[in-house]
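User: I'm curious whether this sequence folds into something compact or stays loose and floppy. Could you predict its structure so I can see for myself?
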Amino acid sequence: MIPTLATAVQQIITGGQRKDSIAARLLFMMKIRERWWDRLRLAASVVFVPNLNDWTALQLPPGLFGIYYPLRLLRLFYKYTFARILLALRAPIRSLSDDRAA
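Assistant: Here's the prediction. I'll summarize afterward.
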């Protein structure tokens, strides 16, 4: 495992390999953690702790800051499940309309 991580780090530093996706970066960050507890804490912070995207999606007054935590879960659920389902359902409709235009 250590040679694999060393190779991955070397490729990232030298620019030989770019991992731009969030999932790829998260998996790499989880691999370099030593203990399973640290991996779990990292995953929990990524899922549960609000970030700039959550704060800009809906600007709440300071007294309602605690609402960002459940809103983050709803936003991530929509982003990674519901929105993808809608796109998958709309994709065949687009291709049928493209076939009719041709």
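Summary: The longest helix spans residues 68-101. Residues 49-102 form one domain.
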